[in-house]
Design brief:
alpha/beta; 2 domains; Glutaconate Coenzyme A-transferase; 25 strands; 445 residues; 16 helices
């Protein structure tokens, strides 16, 4: 088959390609770097002739012109499975709605319950076999494209080509239209500057990471600090099995700490569903034979995660209460991010032989007016519960790491007070007493 001839026959301008979208359609932009900016701009240009077009995406760094061009939402309505910082700001303006989920089930939602009239996805150039890598959005890409009535690919020369374990490519024969055009640079998300609290939290977790452990690291300052600490430590023969591959894995790989030689599955290869971070990370991931992308329905499946011995899962949260409930999604009722894969890896790591799951946070934060607030609360009042108390494991702040597994309500309260900021401990003890979860014989503070 002449793949190039078929490619040319399906080549359209962005404006021609989006003519397929009609009133009432569900359009999907897939995820993160799979976002198609040329197609989004062309679709936004059709605003006045379209009505009630619903769009799904997640972890998109923007700008999303279809969302921004229509404050009335009569023409376009944008929805996200997991907020990026940009999508959070859209939501603050009333231009984005959240879709609750856990990432391991995302593909199943599409397969069994959702309609996709048109899927639009950015991909690297086609290879000599007529295949396009789903690149940094492999985790959810194939499941969305499979459900779509019509598939449009937007070719970006700067997207990393990623090898996949399975379901990480789409052939030109399965594509309805292809667009090309000039692009700006990929979003460059350099490592956030670490704080003293980040360093303290990382140092509390580091002793739990043993030779041969499998690592899942979330994104942010603390996981990247931890990556650097591991890189400078004596720990060796680590494995990568993660929902998101960020810069910390590149640092660990270059330090020779990740070898993947003790893995139960895909020995010698690190698995991930998504990649985003710095421009240096994208260059590292491009054609890297040691990194395989795979669907999150597999990577995040608790049955997959549980097969790794000494699975170490490390994620961040916004707050926890004295019962051990964890909120990683909202500040009050203001939505911040999403469940994502946190609950997947918390569950899977707890099932792993020797596995441990850590949920990390600074003990306090400051309001805009400078008021200091505790992240450990007596109880939640409307915040979203990401991790139920029945699945609580290690909670870590700069004051220590405490294991809540199997602990009574009064033990949990005592342990969580011990890692709260000292200025708030007496108030938390009084609240625990009022809530009936503080033993009279407990030490105070």
């Amino acid at each position: 088959m002449d793949y190039l001839q078929e490619y040319r026959s399906k080549l359209k301008t962005p404006e021609e390609a989006v003519r397929i979208v009609k009133d009432g359609d569900w359009v999907d932009y897939t995820s993160n770097l799979g976002f198609p900016p040329l197609l989004d701009a062309a679709l936004a240009a059709r605003r006045d002739e379209l009505h009630d077009v619903k769009i799904r995406g997640n972890l998109i760094f923007g700008p999303i012109k279809t969302a921004e061009c229509d404050p009335s939402q009569e023409h376009f309505c944008y929805n996200s499975w997991h907020f990026s910082g940009y999508e959070r700001k859209l939501a603050d303006r009333g231009l984005c709605y959240f879709i609750p989920m856990v990432f391991r089930n995302n593909t199943l939602y599409y397969k069994h319950f959702l309609n996709v009239n048109v899927a639009m996805m950015a991909v690297p150039p086609m290879d000599e076999h007529g295949n396009f890598s789903l690149s940094c959005a492999t985790g959810v890409g194939r499941g969305i494209l499979d459900k779509a009535d019509y598939v449009i690919l937007e070719v970006r020369d700067d997207l990393p080509y990623m090898y996949s374990a399975f379901d990480g490519t789409i052939n030109i024969s399965e594509v309805d239209a292809v667009v090309e055009g000039p692009h700006g640079p990929l979003p460059d998300l350099p490592t956030p500057k670490a704080t003293a609290e980040d360093l303290a939290i990382a140092n509390h977790i580091l002793p739990h990471i043993k030779d041969g452990a499998a690592l899942q690291l979330g994104i942010g300052g603390m996981p990247n600090v931890l990556g650097k600490l591991i890189a400078e430590s004596d720990v060796k023969d680590l494995s990568m099995h993660t929902e998101l591959c960020g810069d910390a894995y590149m640092v660990l790989d270059r330090a020779g700490k990740i070898t993947n030689t003790r893995k139960t599955l895909y020995r010698g290869k690190g698995l991930t569903g998504m990649v985003f971070g710095s421009s240096e990370l994208y260059r590292w991931a491009d054609h890297n034979p040691n990194v395989l992308a795979a669907p999150l329905s597999y990577v995040n499946d608790v049955r997959t995660i549980a097969q790794f011995d000494n699975m170490i899962s490390i994620n961040n949260c916004i707050a926890a209460d004295l019962y051990g409930q964890v909120n990683a999604e909202s500040a009050g009722i203001r939505h911040i991010s999403g469940t994502g894969g946190q609950l997947d890896f918390l569950t899977g790591a707890a099932m792993s032989n020797g596995g441990k799951a850590f949920i990390a946070m600074t003990s306090t934060y400051k309001e805009k007016d400078g008021t200091l607030r505790s992240r450990i609360l007596p109880h939640f009042n409307g915040e979203i519960i990401t991790d139920p108390r029945s699945q609580a494991y290690y909670i870590v702040t700069e004051y220590g790491a405490v294991n809540l597994c199997g602990r009574t309500t009064w033990e949990r309260a005592e342990l969580l007070v011990s890692v709260a900021h000292p200025d708030f401990r007496d108030g938390l003890i009084k609240a625990a007493e009022a809530q009936g979860i503080w033993r009279r014989s407990n030490r105070r503070g």
